[in-house]
Amino acid sequence: MGIVQGELLKEYENRIINIHSALLPKFGGKGMYGHYVHEAIIKAKETKSGCTVHFVSEKIDGGKIIL
Question: Is 20 assigned a catalytic role?
């Protein structure tokens, strides 16, 4: 997993999207990928789950949510 940073992020602001494997903002941020996301959802005893499509920003999983 890579994190987009620096000039590339500035050059393509609001044009890079990410599909996150959980509902943001509750299950996002550093370290929340792959099985870690799903383990956190199960541990929180959530009754609903899904994915979030969002723009990539300087803050991990912090960009504007599209869907």
Answer: yes
